[in-house]
Fold each of these.
Amino acid sequence: MANSRLVIKVTAGADAPERCSQAFTVASVAAASGIEVSLWLTGESSWFALPGKAAEFTLPHAAPLPDLIETIQGGGRITLCTQCAARRSITQEDVLEGVRIAGAQVFVGEIMEEGVQAVVY
C-alpha cells in the first residue's frame, strides 16, 4: 500500500453532513493505513480549511472532524479549491497550517498520475 495514492474531492459540508463525514473518514482511514492522501475541499466543505470551523461540525456516531483532519495531514495533503476560496473570500493567510489553495489544473494533474484512485463525495 505504500505506493498507493488516493485523491478525494469533497463537495459537501454542513449542508450534507453524512456525505461530508464519509469523505473525511475515508481519507483519514486511508492516511492511517499508509496510503498517500490528497483531500480537496470544494463547495461547502471549503469552510473546513479555516481554523475552528471543523470543531463546529457535529454528526452523531462520527469521529470529530478536527481529529480526522489531523490524521489526513499526517499522511497526505489538504487542498482548498481556488475558485471556492475566492467565492468565500478565503485567502492563503486564512487557512489552517499545511492547507494549500490550488485550482483545477493541479487537481487534474493529480488524478491523471499513474496509480492514483480518485473519489468524489
Amino acid sequence: MKAAPFAYHRPDTVDEAVEVLATGDAKVLAGGQSLVPVLAMRLGRPGTLVDINRLPGLDTLVVSGGELHLGAAVRQRRVERSPEVRGVPLIARAMPFVGHRELRSRGTVCGSLAHADPAAELPAVAACLRATVVVRGPDGERTVDARDFVTGAMTTAVGADELVTGVRFPLSREGEGFGFAEIARRHGDFALAGVAVRVRRDGEAVLAAFGVSDRPVVRDVTALLDDPTEAALRPATDALAAEVVDTDGDAHGSRGYRARLLGVLAARELARARREAHA
C-alpha cells in the first residue's frame, strides 16, 4: 500500500518544528523506520510530517557531566559503533538486538523511545538506567524521567505539540555490573521477553522487563540477591515473572511461556551482573 496524502515540512530550527507540531495533526520524521511502515499500511494518517534531520544540535553525541548525551537525530548505528558508548555498557549490549543493522543505520535512539513499542529494547534500557528524556514544547524545555516516559503501548508523556530533542544516560560507575538478554523467534524480531539489569556492589539491583506488558516494567530486586547464584535466584525470578507478565499472549507465545522465559533470563542476567559488579 501507499501512504495517504500528507504535507511535508522541513523546519530550520527546533522552535519552528514545535510551531508546526502545535498547528494540528503532525508527526515527527527522524529515522522513519517505525513511522514509514505505519504510513504505508495506513495505520496512521498524519496531515503533516515534520522532518527534523537537519535541525542544528540534534545530531549531538557527547559525554558531559557524567552523562552520555544523545540528540534526537543520532542514529542507532552511530551509537553502536561510538567509543563514547563504552561508558554506558548496557546500551552497548542492547544495541545489536535492536532490529537489523540496516534499520539501525537509519533508526534513531530517541525515535525508538518515542515510538514506545512494548517489545523494544531501548525504552527498557532507559528505564533501567533512569535516563532523562529532554522534551521541547511551546512552553519551553522540560525533562522526563525515563521510568515515567512510556505511559502505555505506543504512548508516551510527550504532548502532540512537543518534540523529543534528546536523551541523557548516566555513565556507569565503579562497582556496577550489567546484564541484558532477550528471546525472539529470529534475530531482529521483536522480543517475546527480555530483561535489562543493573547491579551495584553495595547490593542495589534494578531489573527492567520488556515484551511482557504494555510498557517496560521496572522492579527493585535488591532483596533477591541474598543468594546470588542463578539456581538460587530462579524461584524468586519465577515469582517475579508471574507478577509482571500481564500480556494476553499471541500466536508467538502465551502468557505462561513468556513468564517462563522471563524467569530464566532474569535469574541468569542478575547472577551475571552481580559477578561483574564484584569482579
Amino acid sequence: MKAVSHTVEQDVADRAVLVSLVTQKQKKNEELAEYSLYELVQLAETAGVAVLDTMTQYKESKDTKWFIGKGKVEELKAKLEELGGNTAIFDQELSGAQVRNLEAALDVKIIDRTQLILDIFAQRAKTREGIIQVELAQLTYLLPRLSGQGKNLSRLGGGIGTRGPGESKLETDRRHIRGRIDELKAQLAEVTRHRTLHRERRKKSGVFQVALVGYTNAGKSTLLKQLTQADVYIENQLFATLDLTSRTMTLPSGKEIVITDTVGFIQNLPHDLVAAFRATLEEANEADLILHVVDSSSDMRSEHMRVVAEVLEELGAHQKEQLTIFNKIDQCSQEEQELLTAPGEFLKITAFSEANLELLRNTIQDKLMGDTKTFRIPANRGDHQALMYRIGDVLETDVNEDAMVFKVRLNKEDYAKVAYQLTAYEEQLAQHEAGHDEGENQ
C-alpha cells in the first residue's frame, strides 16, 4: 500500500483530520480498509482540503451515538486542537444524529465520505445535466439530515460540504426541499428525454456507440483524447472529469463511431449519486460495446474491477459486449504485466503508444463489425445491392455473369435483421443457376 502523504497549508479554509472506523467484520480485509482511508486522503485533497493527519479506530461495531466511541472522540478532539484543525472527515457515512453529537463534542465541521464526494461533484459539474444531477443528489442526501445542519453548514464561511444547493436552501422547511427535488427530477427527465432522442437518431443513422467505463483516475479521458484527438480536461486526480463527453472516432476501415467517456466509479459510491447519475451512466446501457479501462499500475486494480462490475450490474449493463483495457502498462514491470488478466477478451496498452492505439482501434472494429462474408446478389435486385452498404462495410465488389458479388465486413446487429431475406435470394439464385446449367446440358 502506498504511503499517505499529508499536506498542511494554513491559508486553506478546511484543515482536517481524517477518521476511519474498522469493525470486526471489516478487519478480515484490512488492506481494503487501509486503501479506503488512502483514497479518502486523495478525495479530501481533490476537494481542496489540507489533510493534517489520519486516525483509525478498531471497534467491534460502530457506536450508534458517537460512531467511533466516546473515548476516541476525546482523542480526536485533542488532535484537532493540537494541529489547529477545523474539520473532521469520516470515511464512512454518518447518520444525522451522529453528525450532531460529533459536532457538539468537537466544535468543528463534520463531513462524511458521501458528503465529500458530493462536494467534489459540485465543484466539477459544468453542464446543465451535471449541475441538476449534483443538486438532486445533495438534496436527497441532506433531506433526512436537515435538523441541526445550520451550524455545521455555516461554520467558517464555506468550504467543503457547503457547495451546490447552498445554505439558504437548506434553512427552508422540508416541504420546500421536497418540492425542489421534484422540480429537479422533472428537469432531469426532460434532459434524459432529449438524450434518448439523440441516441435514437444515432441508432437510425447506423452509428455505433462505444462507452468508456472504469474506476476514477484509470485514464479514460486520456484514452479518449488519444483515440479521437478530443479537447478534454485531463488531470491526475479523482473525478477530474465529471460531465459526459462524446467524440467521433474513425476506425481503420474509415467508418466513424461515437465514443463516450462516462463518470468514473469509486468504492462506496453514494447510492444517491448512482440514482442521480443514472441518465449519464445509461450511456453504457445504450452502447454497442463497453470498454472497461483499468489502471494496471494500481495495487487495488482487482478491487477496482469488482466495483465497476457491481455498478454495471446495478445499471443492467453487465450483459453488454465488453472489452477490458489494462491501461498504463508503461508504469508496470514485465512481471506485473504478465499477471494482468480478466474474464473475456482483454488488451494491455499504454494510451501513449500509437501501435497500442492502432491495435485497440482494430480490436474495436472487429468487435463491432464481426466477420467478413461474401454475397451473390441478382443483378436485377438493386434494392438488395443497396442493402449491402447498410449491413456493414463493403470491401470488394465484382460481377459474376448475372450476379453482383459483394465482400462485406458485417455489422452483426444490422445483418441479423435481414439475414433471412439475403439467404432466400441466394437460394433462389442458386436454383436459377442450376436450372440454367441443366438446360444447357440438354
